[in-house]
């Protein structure tokens, strides 16, 4: 698996898009009661883009996030992440991709309360087999990138909500992922802290990281380069200008 990931950029069929979803369908239930969460979705996201995924509740945006993040599998269709077709990969291979290629940020911070900020950020590297010394150095650098270099020994209950989300972002980027995937990352934050978090996303994007944010907030979407709008399991706008998102969905 590691060899395959290392060799992917050398493939003669290499495609510059970091995310390619082709005719993705996701259904739940049986023939009697079947729900089609996604219906023949086609989406392409280029390397280095900053996109938001929007839509009303039940539109399919959360299902799309789970598939992009390799947390769920489509019922049919093809999903290429960094030129790697992930549909038929084993659960272990998908876990390896999540650890090495994708950084996750959620509305709830999912920090371990008994651990310091530094130790929370170190966790993904333990699973990735990084040496102890390198784990320490990379975790400190990641926390410095999000403005918490002076809070590395604080536990979550000693940090504000915004600071906890910064720790979660540091944890998401510590393995240098190619994709930062955020699900309602500002939903538990006030407006000032929301702006601070979104500034971090913009800085990471300017450094070359692809950023995809799932949100229902128009103000969050306006920080991105384009909006992908879902309705009833389908993409109704694939390149909507953020300035045209005038209401909170």
UniProtKB/TrEMBL annotation:
Mind naming one GO cellular-component term on file for this protein?
A: plasma membrane
Q: Which GO terms describe its molecular function?
A: ATP binding; ATP hydrolysis activity; transmembrane transporter activity
SUPFAM superfamilies reported for this sequence: P-loop containing nucleoside triphosphate hydrolases
Q: What Pfam families has UniProt attached to this entry?
A: ABC_tran
Which residue ranges does the record assign to the ABC transporter domain? 19-248
UniProt KW keywords: ATP-binding, Nucleotide-binding, Transport
Q: Write down the InterPro entries for this protein, in alphabetical order.
A: AAA+_ATPase (IPR003593), ABC_transporter-like_ATP-bd (IPR003439), ABC_transporter-like_CS (IPR017871), ABC_transpr_LolD-like (IPR015854), MacB-like_ATP-bd (IPR017911), P-loop_NTPase (IPR027417)
Report the superkingdom from the record: Bacteria
**Stated name of the protein:** ATP-binding protein of ABC transporter
Its lineage reads:
Bacteria, Bacillati, Cyanobacteriota, Cyanophyceae, Oscillatoriophycideae
């Amino acid at each position: 698996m590691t060899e395959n990931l290392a060799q992917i950029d050398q493939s003669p069929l290499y495609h510059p898009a970091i995310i390619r979803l082709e005719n993705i369908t996701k259904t739940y239930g049986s023939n009697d009661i079947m729900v089609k969460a996604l219906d023949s979705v086609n989406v392409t996201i280029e390397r280095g883009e900053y996109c938001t995924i929007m839509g009303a509740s039940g539109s399919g945006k959360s299902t799309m996030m789970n598939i992009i993040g390799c947390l769920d599998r489509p019922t049919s269709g093809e999903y290429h992440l960094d030129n790697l077709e992930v549909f038929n990969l084993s659960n272990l291979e998908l876990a390896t991709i999540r650890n090495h290629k994708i950084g996750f940020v959620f509305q709830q911070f999912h920090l371990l309360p008994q651990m310091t900020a530094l130790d929370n950020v170190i966790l993904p590297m333990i699973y990735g087999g990084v040496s102890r010394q390198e784990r320490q150095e990379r975790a400190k650098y990641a926390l410095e990138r999000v403005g918490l270099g002076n809070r590395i020994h604080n536990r979550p209950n000693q940090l504000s909500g915004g600071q906890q989300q910064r720790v979660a972002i540091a944890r998401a980027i510590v393995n240098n992922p190619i994709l930062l995937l955020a699900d309602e990352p500002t939903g538990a934050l006030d407006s000032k802290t929301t702006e601070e978090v979104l500034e971090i996303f913009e800085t990471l994007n300017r450094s070359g990281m692809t950023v995809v944010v799932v949100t229902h907030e128009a103000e969050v979407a306006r920080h991105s380069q384009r909006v992908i709008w879902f309705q009833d399991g389908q993409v109704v706008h694939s390149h909507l200008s953020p300035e045209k998102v005038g209401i909170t969905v």
